[in-house]
Amino acid sequence: MAACSPYIETHRDRFLNELIDLLRIPSISADPAYAGDVVRCAEAVAQQLTAAGAENVEIIPTEGFPVVYGEKMVSEHAPTVLVYGHYDVQPAVPLELWDSPAFEPVIKKTDLHPEGAIFARGACDDKGQVFMHVKALEAMVQSDALHCNIKFMIEGEEEVGSAHLEPFLEAHRDKLAADIVLVSDTGIIANDVPSITVGLRGLSYVEVEVTGPNRDLHSGLYGGAAPNPINILCEMIASLKNEDQRILVEGFYEDVVELSAAERKAMAEAPFDEAEYKRSIDIGAVEGEEGYSAPERMSIRPTLDVNGIWGGYTGDGAKTVIASKASAKISMRLVPNQDPEKITELFTRHFNAIAPPSVKVKITPMHGGQPAVTPTDSIAYQAASAAMEATFGRKPVPFRGGGSIPIVASFEQILGLKTVLMGFGLDSDAIHSPNEHYGVFNYFKGIETIPLFHEHFARLSAKS
Ligand code: BES
Ligand code: MN
Ligand code: MN
Description:
The protein folds into two domains: 5-200 and 371-463, Zn peptidases (Aminopeptidase, 3-Layer(aba) Sandwich); 202-256 and 302-369, Alpha-Beta Plaits, CATH 3.30.70. It contains 13 helices and 18 strands. It has helices spanning 5-10, 12-23, 35-52, 127-142, 165-171, 229-238, 261-268, 274-281, 294-297, 340-354, 379-392, 407-415, 440-463; strands spanning 55-60, 67-72, 80-86, 106-108, 117-119, 149-155, 180-183, 195-200, 202-211, 217-218, 305-311, 321-322, 325-334, 360-369, 372-373, 397-400, 419-421, 437-439. The chain starts with a helix and ends with a helix. Ligand BES binds at residues 125-126, 158-159, 161, 185-187, 200, 203, 367, 369, 401, 403-406. Residues 90, 125, 159, 431-432 line the site of one manganese (II) ion (MN).
């Protein structure tokens, strides 16, 4: 039995209740109305880190929300692991779609979580996963089973693009010195199919506004000759892809790294059940780029998606009007070696070029992030693989994920550090959606696995 297991078993209920308390804090970074709660959450994380046995715990201010730092140094001969995660959460709206209030956590059983899952905003993304590391630290300290120096860096702006984190890394290079970054903010394929994420997509996010006439007009008096910005925006958006779902933004695919046949074959070995996928989100067919499988479309291929679109009259009943303006928010998920700034630039040029002379177009870049791939031949990957194999009873498969954690590329660029993405969520945990949840099984699997990661990483580092 692993050294920490008895302690974890004995303190199981408390470990669950402390997470539930953290989940009660609505730390929504996007909404200024919750700024006080975000700061209160940073304080709660700092307090929990101290209680778990971390030293030199600090709430470090940034231009935005603070970063919580803490460390447990055991020996200058031991390797150092920098644990990164985020305590901020996505907005919970639309609230009426939640079966129970987003910040009043409850444990309920589901088909995929027969042992129960904690329902709350942030349960999986990322408070539940951050808290596994806090509780794993406590278990290691109390079981006298610390093998690595551990540093924690838990931020409060991940869900709004981590705008102040690169300057933070630059300002605290010495404090953050480490051998590897360990992140639990991703998922596994299924509870009986453990996996390690080895790639994240980048992101370029823009808002577009199309202006037609200088004011809203009567659609009978003016309709037919006045340009309708909503119609035009829809046509412009529709023209961004062809019938094979290839993105037509000039130069968009220029830097995309194509995977070799061998790499694609290896990827295809990760199980994917298309019928189950369609059933789980209730769709009639999968969509996407010709020539690629659904898992490839969601990981190694870039995308362009409208995230929101608005304009004109959307209230009750009918109002006959030609709006002056129409807007949309558009995200592009990027893959190696696409650069978010270049893509934003290419998009801007293309979108301006396709606008008819009857309208004006304004494009506002929002946040972006670099894609990242993490190595599978490193001792850190081997340590994560051995740890998961021990707790799941099955060797994890490497897997490229579709989501983005922009700071991962910055860890490499600024601190020269590689990252291991050892997450424990499921795609079906509804992160960013109503009824977000995190399996009790997954939470404790993480708490059991993390100490084994440190143990294997220390052992493998000593050998190399
Ligand atoms: N934890 C997610 C990213 C994620 C989830 C990656 C599951 C892989 C598997 C993270 O909190 C997130 O939501 N990132 C944002 C990007 C950010 C710039 C808002 C995303 O991917 O949309
Ligand atoms: Mn996250
Ligand atoms: Mn998120």
